[in-house]
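Input for the complex:
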Amino acid sequence: MQKTRAAPLTELSDHDLLERLQRSAFAYVETYADPDTGLVADTSRPGSPASIAVVGFALSCYPIAVERGWMRRAEAAARTLRVLRFFAGSEQSAARDASGYHGFYYHFLQMQTGRRVWDCELSIVDTALLAAGILLVGRYFAAAGDEPEIRALADALYRRIDWAWAQNGGGAISQGWKPEYGFLDYGWEGYNEGTIVYLLGLGAPEFPLPQASFSAWTSTYQWENLLDVDVLYSGPLFTHLFAHAWIDYRGIRDAFMGEKSCDYFENTRRAIAVHREYGARNPHGFVGYDRDLWGITAGDGPSRVELRVDEHDYRAYGYMARGAPYGPDDGTLAPWAMLATAAFGVADALRGTRRLLSQYPEVCPQDRFVSGCNPSCRQDTGIWLSDGWYGLDQGLLVMMIENLRSGLPWALMRESPYLRAGLLAAGFTSGWLTA
Amino acid sequence: MSATREREDAAAMAAWQRRTRPKDWRNPTPVARYDLCVVGAGPAGATAAICAARQGLRVALVERRQLGGNSLNWGSVPSKTLISMARSGADFPTVLARLHRVRSRIAEHRSIERLQTLGIDVFFDQARFVGTHALRVGAATLCFRKALIATGARPALSDIPGLADSGFRTSETIFDLTALPRRLGVIGGGALGCELAQAFAALGSQVTILQRQPKFLPGIERDAAEILSRSLARDGIETRLNTAVLAARTADGSRVLDVANNELRFQIAVDEILLSVGRVPNVEDLELDAAGVVQDPAVGVHTDDFLQTTNPDVYAAGDVCMRHQFANVAEATARMAVLNAFAGGRERCSELLIPRCAYCSPEIAQIGLHSWQARERGIPIKSYTVMMADVDRAITDDRIEGFVKLYVREGSDAIVGASIVAARASDMINELSVIMNAKIGLRHLAEILHTYPAQSCAITMAAQAFVRNQPVIPWT
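Predicted:
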């Protein structure tokens, strides 16, 4: 039988485009999960370890796959259970090759054994992203069969995280810990994706963060008028998206947002407006930037050795948390980023994505966006492209497209008593919290 | 250096010496009682002495080193000359020669001749209090109605094992270099450390800067610190944040620093080490107890908001008592102290609006409150930011790095603080100083004409952003 050739992405309707890109993004989770541990690879590159944050996103994708008919419920439950059993049985100790400690996990784990790799840090924020995924599957898999075990394990794994320990005796949360050194301090300051750490930490029944920790966190916020937009600033786009993949911030406000007559959902919309305006102004004259072609965030980019540009003072940053408008900006865009904002404004997201696909179709091999592209940096084969795919990008895309299409992740997490408790402890009021 | 150049350099050095401490100087015979004895002849001490002498008071000024203090001799003047020259592409001997000429030229502003002309008795020696109203200076006793302690501060040292033996320089001795170090290690990522790191990198040194904290210039906002980090890296400086120096030693003709970044341990070999880890007040040797003046080595002389010490007839000004150790603060507090001591003034140092700047590239300047300081005080604020990349003059000059950020009290148009990162932030922040002191609100500021094009148009543009942000009242 002759195989039907798929229509080019740019020729698809909005519905079909979303469906195909979301399905392809989910295929990353299917393809790059370890059959024994269930852990999911950080990237598609050979030898990549698992990232616990990617696992958090991947877990959250399984219910979506079931509801979309991409995966049978039994298989999704089995995959989910495999991951949860791995974490429940993995070594939690101060040993250098353990999987975790105090309920937290190392940022990167060996795919087959689940042991720490690269002497990486016990990551507080990545554990929070994993915990969010664990809580989500704990809400979804509420049927019989394997599913009671999923709920029990999800509850146990979340409850054993010792959030208060991560404060290291102080007010603010440390970003990480290493057995060879102790707590790490990278100087978190201002708004970023770390809100999810505080909200999940505040809602924990066993080892919660104290209420005052959240106001200490928000005390470093900066409310800015930037490029004529009032916004709680954070430079990289992903910082306005990660926690939002799970938390429905629409209409709920903490004290800071109450003071500003805003909410975090609306704030992400405004951050997107800043990024679009920055794309239009394009202060450094990078190739491709436009109000409808934007997306500056953390991710892969060209390094100095890969450069071939005309600008005499051009500097490339490699893997870096890029941001707008303060920078750093080296002309690298995240091709997935515009689509990942679809739940905040589908028209802008799709217009930008279509523009990108039309102008640089090579950013989406096998219907799946690469992590970074840099049209200002030319290679023999075309514009600079990141190798392979990154799990974070794909997991975020699946979730945010679903939040646009059905709102399933948000709905599941609205039912989480732990998240609700965390939001209330942080002083959030109004909207669905009062229902 | 050519013979002509050498002669010119020697002449500049001699003029500097003559103006700041003549070699054949003999201290005058003190009068029975001075209205004011000033200890320390830096920016604070000289300002106080001149201010009092102009009012007809009998003044003694005591200095143990050179007139001009740290700012002229080892601080702002030489460092800013170095920075300016480093960017000009000049070689190191040329830079040093200009540094000597500049220092000599500026020393003339408050030279010994000028002070004498004002009737000030200048003494060169260590001053020690021998009572509540008397000082011993060499063999002489100086009695006073009032005294002002203005002894300044000096570079803090470090107890890093082996550092003293391996040899290091501070901001006071770095300008004694006669040749450019091939490799320079800078310990400390504060303003001076970053400034000199960039200057030496521009001159051609291979510079590594080691900062214990997670960002450079602790105390400035994140976006400014990140721009500086990228600028340091752009300039070819090896930047090491979260990095502690554990020990220093010499090996194979190099100075070697053993450093730790979290659990990672490694060595950095350099030819010279610049230690720049803050400043400590000069309170030792003054025998302040005899005058009933309370001090501690960390924060200096204790004063109240009127700069009065625990001895009601002894005041202090400048680096020896102020958290902000800048020449402009030294001079302002000196004037305040003299007014409070002699003219019944009630000038409060807490009311000073202090513009300050790190002379890095780009420059980073600040005035008033930071956003988090405002929040700590319960002041709801919002900032209005203009990126230099959107300022026409910055674009024409290709100096688009940085921003102007005005912090505004919500519900008003009152500016409570500002941060500027720009090529000439040190000049631009002074406009904000005038604006804030004159209490000019953003609505008014938005209408004030500036030359076009100018970098400072960024300030007006921020004010105009404020106006655009207000509800529109339709014209009828």
